[in-house]
Amino acid sequence: MNGKLRSGNRPATPFTVYRSPFTLYLDAVHDSASAPNILAVRFSSIGDVLLTTPLLRALRRRHPACRLTVLTKQAYAPLLNQNPHVTRVIGLSRERPLSEMAAELRGQRYTHLLDLHGSLRSRMLRVLVPGDWSGYPKHRLARAMLIHAKRNIYRDRRQVAERYFAAARSLDVAPDGGPPDLFWGPDEEHAVAEWLRRAGVPETTRLIAVAPGAAHATKRWPLEHWQALIQRLVLEDSHVAVVGGVEDGALAAHLAGMAPGRVLNAAGHFQLQQTGALLRRTSALVSGDTGVMHMATAVGTPVVALFGPTVQPFGFFPYTNRARVVELSLGCRPCTSKGGPRCPLGHHRCLRDMNPELVYEALCRTLL
């Protein structure tokens, strides 16, 4: 089961290094020079980091004695620091120059270096840490053709979680079909349980999570649609938890004000692992194309995902069979791969025309 309880975060200097609770076992069995010593690099963001976990799981199962280190930004290290498949997580802070990080990595004698990001920064790291680097296909040309010419020349139909496996092609691993992983400890579980208790949410009630925020405006379902959906859920005796980051706090507070005590503002109140524990307690999540959506898939919570400017060929649909994607067939889609500050055509029909009744019906089918 995903979302298993794991205890013990053990940060160390100088880059905030987390050693998995599984590390002592790994130290005991890592007595063969032939065991791979792997570094996987994915700096950001929430969803992208979580989508690496099927590969990390496969590496551990295929090479139980391997040392598996993941380098990510410090803000996203909690997504992995209790993952039992990972030996060590290195969280790179903004204050640390990449050259200093590279100097530490060069002494680790990695046998396999996996670039799961393919960014300018990860390419700089390849130069600074020489070795057997490999990456995965980002299909930039196909993506550009689909956005700008509306021609789909994608031949690779895999989700990004499976495309990552190309970086580990020399390690004889294959996807197992399972969703991403997210693990947390008893402290996070207790914090969520206590928050729900103080909020007066009965354990027997149906709790629906909604994630109205998004980093980019064009990925946000209109406020009035969220209000209509939440009102419908409250009338049907559900409790609603509005989840998100600190930046979503004002929006979440506005929605919580619709029905105090029945609509709960969780945005900005929880850290990443605690948010995962909260999502695990919910019956379903309604979300846009955001990192929270991938968190829900990682903990086994059914998802209703609202896709506007982005489309399936990009590879970021929910990586689980417990999800329904709601999208409209419009000639202007996709207009971007990541979202943007405004609709290029000024109408934002991809999400404005997605009426609350359509989303509610998808949610009802998901809850069956």
Count the E strands.
13
Spatial ordering of strands, largest sheet: 1-2-5-4-3-6-7
Shape: globular
CATH domain topology of the largest domain:
Rossmann fold
Treating each run of at least 4 consecutive H or I residues as one helix, how many helices? 14
Spans of at least 5 consecutive residues whose pLDDT stays below 50 are 6-14
Tell me the name of the CATH class of the largest domain.
Alpha Beta
Describe the protein:
The protein is an alpha/beta fold and 368 residues long. It has 2 domains: 11-171, 3-Layer(aba) Sandwich (Rossmann fold); 186-367, Glycogen Phosphorylase B (Rossmann fold), CATH 3.40.50. Helix content is 33%, strand content 14%. The protein is built from 14 helices and 13 strands. The chain has helices at 23-29, 46-50, 53-62, 98-106, 120-128, 140-149, 160-163, 186-198, 223-235, 249-256, 272-280, 291-299, 349-352, 356-367, and strands spanning 11-12, 17-19, 37-41, 67-73, 88-92, 112-115, 133-134, 207-211, 239-242, 263-265, 284-288, 303-306, 323-326. The strands form 2 sheets. It has a 7-stranded mixed beta sheet with strand order 1-2-5-4-3-6-7, sandwiched between helices. Strands 10-9-8-11-12-13 form a 6-stranded parallel beta sheet, sandwiched between helices. β9 (239-242), α10 and β10 (263-265) form a beta-alpha-beta unit. α11 (272-280) crosses α12. The longest helix is centred in the middle third of the chain and has 13 residues, at 186-198. It is globular, with a radius of gyration of 21 Å. The model is unreliable at 6-14 (pLDDT under 50).
